[in-house]
Amino acid sequence: MAAVMAVEGSDPTGGGAVLSHRSAAALWGLLSPSGGPVDVTLRGRSGRRKRQGIRIHRPVSLDPAEMTVRRGVPVTSPARTLADLRSAIPARDLRGAIRQADFLGLATGPDIAVDRTRSELERRFLWLCSRFHLPKPAVNMKIGAMTVDFCWVEQKLVVETDGYQSHRGREAFEGDRARDLRLRGLGYEVMHLSHRQVFDEPHEVLAVLKPALTRPRGAR
Predict the structure, then answer these.
(1) Fewer CB atoms < 10 Å away: N or C end of the chain?
(2) What is the pLDDT of residues 189-217, one digit of tens each?
(3) C-alpha radius of gyration, the chain, whole number
(4) Cα angle 191-193-194, degrees, rounded to a multiple of 5
């Protein structure tokens, strides 16, 4: 708040200063605080260009609808914050911020694509689907009380990507078998793919997955 007020007070036009970029993302809970300069966007074109510990941004346009208040601090909206981050952080960090915004239920706008993946393994599998031109699956979809990693509803096919850390141990093993049984009772075929298969054996994965997605519906 102090950074915003400092920049606001330095602008004789009263252009309106808001927290933005990485600092706004931290305030919204999309990224961890960086510990670097505080990012502040100023609508006016005049005023001081530099302030110690503050990184001032002067965009060509900042619509009033893209400004709001969170915890008493003027800040860019989640959608504008994510748009600003596109040129400010690595693509991997941006994807994480987008997923976090989706998890928190924040409005991200029509220009922000949310893949809904929850891990690098899931992101890799989704990339493989795109790489091999497979139909895009629903990601982390609810089927009854269960959430499955990937689902092709029309083909009644579920793919679970099993990372070792979250699927090791007897309890996890038994839980997976019970889920599979319930899903098969609902008419779904279930495939399990390991981290090694997804990352190191993509063509073997394709050889099994593609026939399952192209055969006539209901055929087994």
Answers:
(1) C
(2) 999 999 999 999 999 999 999 999 987 65
(3) 23
(4) 155
Question: In the Cβ-directed half-sphere of 171, how many Cα atoms lie within 13 Å?
Answer: 2
Instruction: Give the residue among 103, 152, 88 at the shortest CA–CA distance from 126.
Output: 152
Which residues, at least 6 apart from 119, have a Cβ–Cβ distance to it below 8 Å?
161, 163
Q: Which tokens belong to 82?
A: 């994510």
- pLDDT, tens digit, for every residue of 121-135? 888 999 999 999 999
Q: How far is 48 from 60, CA to CA, in rounded Å?
A: 17
Q: State the number of CA atoms in the 13 A half-sphere of 94 facing the CB.
A: 17
What's this model's pTM, rounded to 2 decimal places? 0.58
Query: What single-letter amino acid sits at 22?
Result: R
Strand order in the sheet with 189-194: 138-143, 146-152, 157-162, 189-194
> Which residues, at least 6 apart from 204, have a Cβ–Cβ distance to it below 8 Å?
197
| Distance separating alpha carbons of residues 74 and 67, to the nearest angstrom | 7
